[in-house]
Structure formats: C-alpha cells, structure tokens
Design brief:
2 domains; alpha+beta; Thiamine-monophosphate kinase (chains A, B); globular; homodimer; 343 residues; thiamine-phosphate kinase activity (chains A, B); 60s Ribosomal Protein L30, Chain: A; PurM-like_C_sf (chains A, B); EC 2.7.4.16 (chains A, B); 4-stranded mixed beta sheet; 13 strands; ATP-binding (chains A, B)
Chain lengths: 343, 343
C-alpha cells in the first residue's frame, strides 16, 4: 500500500467497521442474514463462476489503481458469465485484508467494482471480510441462462464460423504503455488513451447476449437447441480458439487479415509485434463464438463494426493461422509453441 | 505446513497441475467451461453465502488437520444455508495457495470438504486455484428455498418460542481439550471423543429442514407465509439470540435450565464455566429458530431429544437469562458485556 500513514487503516476500525462502510455498495435488503436471497426466472439454468485475485500476484498498486483493480475483477467475472450466455444476477465478494491497508483503498476497490457492476445492473449481494497478511479478493458471480442457449467450449462443430465480438491486443498494448510510456512516443494522446482504457476498464460483452437471443428467436432456432460454442478471450485470442477446439475435438482456420486490430497498430508496431499482442496479449474480455454461418453473419451485421468472422471450425484438429494475401506463411498455433514462437 | 521436505510441493506441479488433481472432487460435467451450470427448481429462491478462511487466522496445522479444516469450512457454509431454510445446490472453492504447501495437504483439505459435502449430496461445482504467499480458502455455497419458508433474522415476533436444534458448548469444550489435554483428566474417553468430534466434525443442521417443511405443510401454513426467524449459532448461542432480537427489534427471555448442554458438563465444569461455554463458545453450528409455539412444539417433538424450546421472544427489547429454579439471579445478555462478564 502506498497510502499515507495519516490515513485511517483497516485495523483501526476492524473487520466489522469495514463491513459497515462497505454496506453502501450492497442493496439494503441484502444485509444481515446468513445468506443472500434472490429471485430467479423459472426454466432458467443457474450459472456460477469464481475468481481469486491476490495482491502482488494479480494486481498491484504499482500498475493498477484500486478503482481499476475493482473494475477489472468485476469485469472478469461478468465476462465469464457472458461467455456462457448468462445474464448476471449478482456477485459475492470475499475480502481478506491486511490491517495496515488504508480504509480508503478498500472503498476505492469497491467503488471500482460497483462502477463496473452498475453498467450491467448487477448487485453485490453478499460477502465476507476477514483479516489476512495478504490482500485477496474472491469474487463469485452467478447468473441465469436459457438452457437451450448456453454457450459451451465443447459445442463447436466443423463448418461453424468463428466470430470475435471486438478488437484484440488493445489491453496488452495499454499495459505496455503504462509500464513503458516511452513506447507511445509516436502515438496521439487519443490513441494512447484508448489503449490504456482497454487495459484499465475492459468491458464484459454481456451487451451481445440480447442480440444473439433475438437472432436465435427470429430464426426459430431458440427452441431447437442449436449448440453454441465459445468462451471469453481473457487469456488471449489464440488461447480461446485452441481451448474451444480442444474441448470440441475440432480444429480451426483463422484468416489473419480478418482479425480486427487496434487502429493504432499498423503504423506503430511491426507486423510480428502486432500479431503477437493480438493473439497472445490477453485480457481484452471479448467473446470468441463458434456459430452456424447464418447466425454468425446476422450477429456480426447487428453488432458494431469491430466484430468479425475471422475463420471456420474444421474437422482437421489443427488450429491454423492462414494469410490469403500471401504475405505470411501458414502457421499452426499451439499454446506453448505459439508463445515461444512470438517471444 | 508441517510437511516433510520429501513430499511433492504445489510449486512443483503448478496451479494447473494442482487443478488436475482436484478435478476428482468435482462432477465430471462441471469441468472445462468458464462457469458451472446447474438446474434449479422453478418457484424457488436462490440463496447464496460466502466465507473466507485464512491459514493462521481461521485454521492452523497446529490445532486442525487439513481434513478437519476442509470439513469445517464446508460445514460452516452449509450451516449458513440451513440457517436460511435452504437446500444446497453446490459450492465453489477459491483456493489461494503457497507454492511450498504439500500437494497432499491440499488433497486432504479437499477430501475433508468432500466428506462433509457428500453427507448432504452437495457437489463442488467450480473453483479457482491461484498462487499466494498465504493459504486462503474462499467458499461460496448456493442453495434454493421455498420463498414462503425462508428463515430470516428479521422475522422474530413477540410470543414466538425460541428453539435450539441441539447441544451448545460442546465444540468449545472439544477445542479446549485439544489445546489443553490435561483439562480432560476427569472425563471418560467416550466423553472426550464426543466433545472433540463436536469441534472437528460439526454437522450443519440441514437435516431439520424436511421436518420443518412437513410441519408447515400439515398445518396448512406453508402457503400462508408465516414469518420464520432464526440463524445458526456459529458465533455462539448468545450471539444468535441477540442478533435475531436486534434485527427483529424484539427481546427474549431464556430459561437457563432449558438449554441442552453436553452430558459431561455438570460433573466436570463449574456452573459459571459451563454457561460461558454454552452461551459464548461458538462453532456448534446448531440452528436457533424463533417460531409460533405450536410449530416449535411439533418440531421439538419430531427432532431428537437434544433439541428444546429454551425461551420466548418478548416485546421488551432486552435479552434476559432467567433461572426459574432460583439458583441464579436474572441477567441481561449483551454481546460485549456478556463476554466481559464471563471472562
């Protein structure tokens, strides 16, 4: 904690005192019982995901403000729900906190979480605050999904189109600009800000779910249970495609020129650096979806221009990056080889 | 960790390696997606609770085996569900782990959790494993409850009977016997084992929920939404009564002689020591319920003989411990005064 010694510390108000201060981030009717109560829609499946973030391992005051750490923690969990096709119901926050931490740091962390959650109408419904030598945040997010529209890693079928809901590589570029500001000397302020914002305030793509539902309904496909495949790209675009292919026992052909990239990249980075960040940067929190072509085309048409069909699922179980312009040789992407190749 | 240096450590197999080993504790269809999927019953409310446990703060190899730490962590969360009247659907486990921890320690922890969860047919549906300087376990449990039968701290009404589902003080006595074995020199092995087991393997009182439901159904009360009040006694019997009274804006009269206590206590402890452990010992994970007298009487009749009606909710907002045998003066219980009085 780089907080002033004059600031009130958690140990001065205790866990109960801190809990009192955090109550303003929860709906009033959620406070006081052994557990939170929520209403779910009938005929929906319950979707649950959990993440643990440790200070010094997953976040640090050196690179991330507490507000941004809070936003990113909430966004990562909501992104996991989006990746399953689920609408969020709420999150619980388990906080293990060092007594020397400034109370204001914890409040800023919750403010950042809340800023993200409010965009997606998601309440903090419960939690726990305990003392610990190391600040640790455990978030469990739960949501609900139509059982016929759950997006799974195992559902990709040969012939499906591979859709990305937006740009990849921006979050990594933003982080690099924060760590090495001189990297951005040839970028405009607006370009730098866009990339840094992509790192600090990533947006979980819950916004695409109603559009996807609408397409499935209007195609009379909602009740016929077309398998939908996908996951989020929190660990990178290449990771998402490879994981989906592994779990679905299929392969993929990705067309290099079709992958949307940050507009600042071409005049700023070498093609090698650009494709490394796009494929392996991670933390863009976009969705990588594998869908029947007709649905994929409707989806891309209705989403903003940053979404795109970038390839096809194949029977052959390799993940190939191809370049129909002929500028680059075909490559087979493996997670480990990929990383080695690009480093 | 008091583990041998020869044992395999978490850092040797990594987080992914550890996750692979822990998969055997999860249903196979839960593994691989961004989130877990569960079916819920229609017309039920979703109930969610979360707890964070930190090594050295909430558990320690010095007093608790990893199996017992796992059992107690699972039991505490299931008890929170029971306290709301909810049947468990599953738990998620977020594990932050020091790389020097023995892999076998983590497996024993999960074995203990699983041993407890299996009794209550509750799966581990998801989780996260990350590295951290300090071993930390975050559990989120979720269950479902009939919206008309949710047990809340705010629902106690003057005239309600106060029911305890079992004995209090045993878990505290068991812990003291583990810390100071010479304390038990006048106890039989069977008495010692019963008390120690109460500390190591507490049982969440999910078993009473079907009985309570049955009574409400047969009284035609299920659909008329009689307010049910209660919570678990994880922080002690006195704490539970005081919290319920505070949240319901009522008071209580507790009849000292009606509180079920461990059979070993009268010939072993002074009356002062005995009532201290019974009221303030904590971690017995019984339920303290406040119910209309008719329902309370039926419930106590159907539960085992260790349950009892111990008092009444009053309009007057004090919590009084009274002794109709005249051996002890009446006392007003406050959380802080109570602790001071008894220490």
């Amino acid at each position: 904690m780089s907080e002033s010694n004059l600031e009130q510390k958690v140990k001065e108000i205790g866990e109960q005192g801190l809990l009192q201060k955090l109550h303003r981030f929860c709906p009033p009717d959620m406070i006081g019982d052994d557990a939170a109560v929520m209403q779910t829609l009938p005929e929906q499946s319950l979707i649950v995901t959990t993440d643990v973030l440790v200070e010094g391992v997953h976040f640090s005051d050196r690179t991330t403000s507490p507000e941004d750490a809070g936003w990113r923690a909430a966004a990562a969990n909501l992104s996991d729900l989006a990746a399953m096709g689920a609408t969020p119901l709420g999150i619980t926050v388990g906080l293990a906190i060092n007594g020397d931490t400034a109370v204001s740091w914890v409040e800023k962390l919750y403010q950042g979480m809340n800023d993200c959650l409010q965009v997606y109408h998601t309440p903090i419904v419960g939690g726990d605050v305990v003392r610990s030598p190391i600040n640790t945040i455990s978030i469990t997010a739960f949501g609900q999904a139509n059982p016929n529209c759950i997006i799974r890693r195992t559902n990709a079928r040969p012939g499906y189109a591979i859709v990305v809901t937006g740009i990849h590589g921006a979050a990594k570029a933003g982080l690099e600009l924060l760590l090495n500001p001189e990297l951005g000397k040839n970028l405009s302020d607006s370009e730098k800000n866009t990339l840094i914002k992509a790192h600090q305030r990533p947006k979980p793509r819950l916004d695409i779910l109603p559009t996807l539902q609408e397409i499935l309904s209007s195609s009379c496909l909602l009740s016929s249970s077309i398998p939908l495949a996908g996951m989020d790209s929190s660990d990178g675009l290449a990771d998402a495609i490879i994981q989906i292919c592994k779990f679905s026992q299929v392969g993929a052909k990705i067309e290099r020129s079709q992958i949307p990239i940050p507009p600042a990249f071409p005049n700023w980075l070498s093609p090698e650096q650009s494709i490394e960040w796009v494929l392996y940067g991670g933390e863009d929190f976009e969705l990588v979806l594998c869908l029947p072509l007709e649905i994929a085309e409707s989806l891309v048409e209705k989403l903003n221009k940053e979404s795109a069909i970038i390839g096809r699922i194949t029977q052959e179980k390799t993940v190939k990056l191809i370049d129909s312009t002929g500028n680059h040789a075909d490559e087979i992407l493996h997670l480990s080889q990929g990383f080695q190749h690009f480093k």
